[in-house]
Amino acid sequence: MHKTTVDITTDDGVADAYLVRPDGEGPWPAVLLFMDAFGLRPRIEEMATRIAGRGYVVLAPNILYRGGRSPLVDLSALSDPAARESIFGKVVPMIMALDTDRIVRDTRAYLDFLAAQDGVAPGPVVATGYCMGGTNAVKAIEAYPDRIKGVASFHGGRLVTDQPDSPHLKVGAVTGELYFAHADNDHSMNAEQIATLEAALDKAGVRYTSEVYEGAPHGFTMSDTAAYNEAAEKRHWENLFAFLDRLD
Length: 248
Known about the structure:
This protein is of the alpha/beta class. The protein is built from six helices and eight strands; from the N terminus they run βββαβααβαββαβα.
C-alpha cells in the first residue's frame, strides 16, 4: 500500500490530503472520501487505507483547508464526550464558511487531481462521506453527475434544511446511485427530515437506499471519538463495500 500526503491547488488555496493507492500498476477505480468535521487524522487515514485495500485509489482531502492545514485543532481529547463538544465548537466557524459554491469549486479540483494520477482508471468516481462530509458528497454528485457515479453518506447531517441550497432540493440532478446510513435520534437529520429526503428522491426517480442504524449516535463510524458505536461501524463497512462492489 502506498500512502502519501499531497497538496491540491484549488481556486481558493491549497488543500492538504491523504492519497492512498494499492500496490501494483492498476489502473484502479477511484474513491473520493469526504472527512468529518474533525479533519484529517489517523482515523481518516486508517479508513482511506482500508478502502484502498479493496483495490481503489483513495483521496481524502482536508475540506476545511481554508482554516489551515491538518490538524485543524488539538484532537488529543476527542474521545472524551465533554471535550468532543468543545472541540467541535472550535471547528464550527470553518464548517459554516464552507458554503455550497465553495464545495462545488473544491470538488472540481479534487476530481481533476484524481484524474491526473498515474494508475487511476478513467471515468467517474465514487464518493463517500461522514457527518458533514456526507452532506458535501451529496452536493458534489449533484454538481458533477457525470464525474461521480455514486455517493455513500454515513451519519450525514443537514441533508434537509429550509435553505435554497438544501441538498434534498437538487437530487433530481443525480444520475448515479445514493446510499444513506442515518444515525438514530440525530438532531441534524431527524425522522421528519429523513422522510422529506426520501420523498424528494422518490419524486426525482433516483436510485437510492436509505436506512436508519438504530441505537447508533451521530458520528458512529469514528472510533477515535465518544460517538463511536462498534456494531454500527461494522455495518457501515459491510454496506460501503457492497455499494462499491455494485458500482464497479
